[in-house]
Design goal:
It is built from 8 helices and 14 strands. The chain is an alpha+beta fold and 397 residues long. The strands form 3 sheets. The chain has a 6-stranded antiparallel barrel. A 4-stranded antiparallel sheet has the order 2-9-7-4, with no helix packed on it. It has a 4-stranded antiparallel sheet with strand order 6-5-3-8. Helix 2 packs antiparallel against helix 3 and helix 2 packs antiparallel against helix 4.
């Protein structure tokens, strides 16, 4: 019985020794820190800064307003020049429209005048044609009388009653009447041609061409109006282009006159790089935010542990003062003296950390955790191997 007790005590001591040695010799980090990338909010324009009241470490959502910039001294000279250019173009368009309207009024008056002239000219030609017809009828009667007198004179001369001189006089009178009748008939044909042309709008006569002055002037004004209409179209196209440039410049000036600073990530206010009311230049740093969507755990380990790790190996992160365990994987192996890789991280390494070997661990469960999700600076330990009491820890978790 005493031997059993001795053997049992010895076995229990071996188990305890195995647990103690296994817990201490398992691959673990000397220290681990919850870390994240930094992002800088910069001034989009030059202006006076007005910040929303916030304390360091305040959680902000993506797109949340952080402050604003106002520049009452923004350069608007180009906008003034374009506005003046637009006013000049508008005045030129108004002038061209007024000239076109004046031409339209003149053309309307000349058309009325031309129509009145055409009607009166037709009536005049109709009267002249009627007068020539009357003259022709009178000459026909005269010719008939002359021919009758000539016929009687011929009969009287054959009987010896009429002298040859009288016969010659009657014959000459008949020839004159024939010539006059032929001329009258020619005048009638000319008058008929002139009247027919006038009814078609073409006027024939001495001292002018085929159209009266009113119609000639209408043609000249029509050509002038077309030229002015082309100039007006060109001016309106230019005015439309200036309007677009004015709108673009007005938007540009508005954008330069004021701007809103918004958070580009979901994170925490980490540091202020400019004070409220300060005059900033475009692109100047305003504040830094911790990107809560890029949380990782930075770890320092001994050389023996480091040389046994590879990217993608499993790991466990246990925050200090908590029994929570977060599963993770090795994300980066930076080695010793890895100070440069921390330039864009929130928590810089200590001198003791840099004396050891740097490892970065990605723990996806941290992102969604309410307590540790963006607990930047929270410390703990990372374990890379299975420890004797892991099963017992999982049992109580």
């Amino acid at each position: 019985m005493r031997l059993v007790r001795i053997v049992g005590g010895f076995a229990l001591a071996l188990v305890a020794l195995w647990v103690i040695v296994g817990e201490h010799l398992a691959g673990a980090s000397a220290d681990a820190v919850v870390n994240a990338r930094l992002t800088t909010v910069r001034a989009p324009i030059a202006g006076d800064l007005s910040l929303e009241p916030r304390e360091l470490g305040t959680l902000v959502e993506r797109g949340e307003t952080l402050g604003s910039l106002a520049d009452p001294r923004v350069d608007a000279i180009r906008l003034d020049d374009l506005t003046l250019e637009r006013a000049i173009a508008e005045a030129e368009s108004v002038r061209l429209k007024a000239e076109i309207e004046a031409i339209d009024e003149s053309v309307a008056a000349l058309q009325t005048r031309a129509q009145d002239y055409g009607l009166r000219r037709q009536r005049q030609l109709e009267a002249q044609l009627e007068q020539r017809h009357a003259q022709a009828r009178a000459l026909e009667a005269t010719l008939e009388e002359a021919r009758g007198a000539l016929s009687r004179s011929t009969e009287l001369q054959s009987r010896g009653v009429e002298t040859a001189a009288n016969y010659d006089r009657y014959r000459a009178a008949a020839r004159v009447a024939e010539r006059q009748l032929e001329a009258a008939q020619s005048d009638i044909e000319v008058a008929q041609i002139e009247l027919a042309s006038a009814r078609r709008g073409v006027f024939l006569g001495e001292g002018y061409n085929d159209a009266p002055y009113s119609e000639q002037r209408i043609s000249e004004l029509t050509v002038q109006r077309r030229l002015l209409a082309a100039q007006l179209g060109e001016q309106q196209a230019r005015l439309a282009a200036i309007e677009r440039r004015v709108d673009d410049e007005r938007r540009r000036v508005a954008e330069l006159r004021s701007a809103t600073l918004r958070a580009n990530v979901r994170g925490r206010v980490w540091s202020f790089l400019a004070a409220d009311g300060e005059r900033l230049q475009r692109g100047q740093d305003v504040m830094r935010l911790v990107d809560c969507g890029s949380v990782l755990v930075t770890v320092s380990v001994a050389e023996s542990v480091y040389n046994g790790l590879a990217v993608g190996d499993t790991a466990e992160f246990r925050p200090s003062g908590s029994d929570r365990v977060f599963e993770g994987t090795v994300l980066r192996l930076a080695g010793a003296g890895a100070a440069t890789i921390y330039q864009n991280l929130a928590v810089a390494p200590s001198e003791r950390h840099l004396e050891r070997y740097d490892v970065a661990v990605e723990a996806p469960g941290l992102d969604a955790d309410a307590e540790f999700g963006c607990a930047i600076g929270r410390t703990g330990r990372v374990f890379f191997e299975t420890r004797p009491l892991d099963g017992l820890r999982r049992l109580f978790e």
